[in-house]
Amino acid sequence: MARAVTNQRKAMNTFFAWALGLLIFFPILWTILTSFKTEAQAISDPPIFFFFDWTLENYKAVLERSDYAKFLWNSIFIAGGSTLLGIIIAVPAAWSMAFVPSKRTKDILLWMLSTKMLPAVGVLYPIYLICIELGVLDSRIALVFILMLINLPIIVWMLYTYFKEIPVDILEAARMDGASLRDEIIHVLTPMAIPGIASTVLLNVILAWNEAFWTLNLTAADAAPLTAFIASYSSPEGLFFAKLSAASTMAIAPILIMGWFSQKQLVRGLTFGAVK
Amino acid sequence: MSLKNTLCAAVAASFLSAGVASADKLTIATVNNGDMIRMQGMTEDFTKKTGHTVEWVTLEENVLRQRVTTDITTKGGAFDIMTIGMYETPIWGKNKWLVPLDDLSEGYNAADILPAMSGGLSYDGTLYAAPFYGESSMIMYRKDLMEKAGMEMPKSPSWSFIARAARKMTDRDADINGICLRGKAGWGEGGAFITAMSNSFGARWFDEKWNAQFDTREWSDTLNFYKNMMDDAGPKGFATNGFNENLSLFQQGKCGMWIDATVAASFVTNPKDSKVADKVGFALAPDNGMGRRSNWLWAWALAIPAGTQKEAAAKQFIEWATSTDYIELVAAKEGWANVPPGARTSLYENENYKKVPFAQMTLDSILSANPKASTVDPSPYVGVQFAAIPEFAGIATEVSQEFSAAYAGKQTIAEALAKAQTITNDAMEAAGYK
Amino acid sequence: MATQHSRSAACMMMAPAVVLLLGWMLVPLIMTLFFSFKKYLPLRGDSLSDGLEWVGFLNYERFISSGSFWPSVQTTLIIVLSVLIITVTLGVLLALLLDQPMWGQGVVRILVIAPFFVMPTVSALVWKNMFMDPINGILAHLWKFFGAEPVLWLSEASLPSIIIIVSWQWLPFATLILLTAIQSLDSEQLEASEIDGAPKLKRFWHIILPHLSRSITIVILIQTIFVLAVFAEIFVTTGGAFGTKTLTYLIFQRVLDSQNIGLGSAGGVYAIILANIVAIFLMRIVGKNLDA
């Protein structure tokens, strides 16, 4: 058909895309490679690419020293919990903004985004004092709430824009058929919105996963997630690159694997929802 | 049986049960340096002896500092023990935020702590933090390169000797820099080095009335000397090098000399990580014949925030971690070169420890630094590479940013000093010193 | 067609998000405003429970009269603008490329998205030590390989270095959003134009780009918010030296290094004002894409 492509063009595309992809990925590849080197090899001059004595000693050292499972679980709990909670609160809000817009919708959206602009460090003391007052220092639940609030504007925003792409005619058609508001949401909107929700979820899990200000400053021993795990390996006195690389690899691996499995659904985005 | 006896028995019983049954869980915030990591590995020994368990919160130095400071100033109570330095201890002690450590047990022998260390960790004569390890700074140099340059390192060299040696050892084609020094912005990084260095040039941060002194000839001499030497004999990009950057350069054999923390000695002489492990010599940090050397004094110490419920257990932990027994425990498991240095006099009298190549030089360096009289001209502050006042960290970080910009050639030294003078005086005025 | 019924339902549905965010905004904002008018030096023994001294606008005056203020605003704006331009331009190109048929598309996509998964501290450390180091960095080796003098990235090209690191982190986000948008482009529309024989460039300007405009708006808005607050990348690499001190970084120094909460809070208020000016500006330029 019209979009059928010659193999030659496909090969060109492939070449360029892979070259660029590898270039962008290189710093991460390099981190992963470094995690299998000894500390001395990690800073060797000239740099060694593949031909070094691959060792697992860094991973062993990291696992011996830190309770990786605990950090991992806290990260999953906090990132997952805050995203889930955020979605539950944001879907209705975004839905109503997209389909029942009023004059103030845009203002409300902008205002929501503006709440993100208060620099975190400026409110460290107020928030810390509130947490002490409520007795929720070093608690996972508190972090779930805070990260949810931090990312809520983004979630609402993204969902809003996805929902907006759903053509209104289809809703009106459903309404003419006598569908109730509930039917409309469950049977018509939700299936179309799922890809949009999926990408929103993934992006927010990543944002929450990497959030390193509140997760570091409001935790001690119990609720500390992987950002704190990383902070215990970065820049000690002495050589640290191989161990930091191992710790980093361990910190990004879960989310990278998640991305790997979900990228198709993610990128497919809204194509499947669109009505012809 | 009288009522009194019954009461006494009851009280005694409750005390006993309190002593036995209350196995506390201590939360300890610490920095991620090697000696602390080793301590974590030894925690079992503490639990076995006392019944208390320990939860470690190990963080990178900068994150730790902001974490514990936030917690102590808000009385958050997230930690039972905090690892802090010589800068924080007297300030926090003055505010009564720390539990005084004046009632440690007889067996602990607090008198054994090096006077320089206990002095820097006290306020008004009361100890507020127990040193886990202490450090000064000294010269680490390559004996082979020094020989090649046809020079010999004296035990206590002068700056002019160092500059001459640095230029002579430099071999740009072979990627060898005569000298590697910190230039990185930050009060604990390049700021600490240049402040300690300025002491030997007769400079000081403040005069006795808390006026900034960056408009003096001594400061401009210090910076000019530093920059000229580094331009000729330092590594490329030295303005962004801190401890770790220089360490890796030295370990790769790219530095002829390196003046930095005494604890680095065990890293550069460790053949596993260092290419030059068998070629390193040590000397005292240089001076200018003005009576002050350019070495600093620092300790990582354990302190108990006031208001913790677990004060007794926390004290037990501190006694355990900073005791001579602990040092022997580490020595038995990991060898004498790996014990936490610089805290106790008895360590340097130990025959086994005397065999460690950098032991004596470390002690001599520590002993030659005096926080109470660090400057040639009298100054109103305590501290060698810092001034133990609450405003210092903020001011010195900004000042060191200006210095780093001058090192990188983005502004002249005169400009940097003029800005430093303004920054410091403004901040001191804002803090109510004038 | 919104009925009265659906209107009130809509309000109900919005309520939780609005109320929560209102709380989350107001409580810290009010506390920040409160502190900004007080002398609050915790290391000097000031504490909330003992009451804080009212100092009027002194903190505001001090913050703005410091020599670091205007340069920090300028640095912030340069970083935000450069990162936006780089990520949007490259993001569109990458998205177009990734939309083409090729072998191993899935793998390439994950390669491109991956930097977004890396924590800012880690990516800053990796870039600083493994790439931009003038002696051990890979870039230095590359330069030397071609006989050039290695660049002193973090001191002589400090701002570009920060921009490179931040752009590397945010490019995947832009690409991902834009790719989703391109794939939702009505393929019939494209095919029709293809059959018309419209030149590629024209097709891009008249069909693809207008279709992407709303996604680009989202990318710009969201990235602006995050890049305005960029911190770890500066903290790890230059420590605020060499003209890389942003407004956020300046506030960090006032609050955590100097332990002057009042002064830092005043800075926080300025940062909010700046962010809102930027937001209004953005709205002027791209806001029309939000009406649909």
TrEMBL record, chain A:
GO BP field: transmembrane transport
Record's keyword terms, sorted: Cell membrane, Membrane, Transmembrane, Transmembrane helix, Transport
Species lineage: Bacteria, Pseudomonadati, Pseudomonadota, Gammaproteobacteria, Thiotrichales
Family assignment from sequence similarity: Belongs to the binding-protein-dependent transport system permease family. MalFG subfamily.
PANTHER family xref list: INNER MEMBRANE ABC TRANSPORTER PERMEASE PROTEIN YCJP (PTHR32243:SF18), MALTOSE TRANSPORT SYSTEM PERMEASE-RELATED (PTHR32243)
Main location: membrane
UniProt source species: Leucothrix pacifica
Topology within the bilayer: Multi-pass membrane protein
Record has Secreted as a keyword: no
Tree of life domain: Bacteria
Tagged with keyword Lyase: no
Compartment annotation: Cell membrane
Transmembrane segments: 12-33, 71-96, 108-129, 141-163, 184-209, 240-261
A cellular-component GO term for this protein: plasma membrane
Pfam annotation, one family: BPD_transp_1
Protein name according to UniProt: Sugar ABC transporter permease
SUPFAM superfamilies: MetI-like
Boundaries of every ABC transmembrane type-1 domain copy: 72-262
UniProtKB/TrEMBL annotation, chain B:
Keywords (A to Z) from UniProt: Signal
A Pfam family per the record: SBP_bac_1
Record InterPro entries: Bact_solute-bd_prot1, SBP
Gene Ontology cellular-component terms listed: periplasmic space
Signal peptide span: 1-23
Subcellular location: Periplasm
Principal subcellular localisation of the protein: periplasm
Stated family: Belongs to the bacterial solute-binding protein 1 family.
Name this polypeptide is given: Sugar ABC transporter substrate-binding protein
Lineage: Bacteria, Pseudomonadati, Pseudomonadota, Gammaproteobacteria, Thiotrichales
TrEMBL record, chain C:
Gene Ontology CC: plasma membrane
Compartments reported by the entry: Cell membrane
Signal peptide feature range: none
GO aspect biological process, one term: transmembrane transport
Family matches, as Pfam families: BPD_transp_1 (PF00528)
Coiled-coil segments: none
Positions of transmembrane segments: 12-37, 77-98, 110-127, 162-182, 216-241, 261-283
Residue stretches making up the ABC transmembrane type-1 domain: 73-282
UniProt keyword terms in alphabetical order: Cell membrane, Membrane, Transmembrane, Transmembrane helix, Transport
Family: Belongs to the binding-protein-dependent transport system permease family.
Protein name per UniProt: Sugar ABC transporter permease
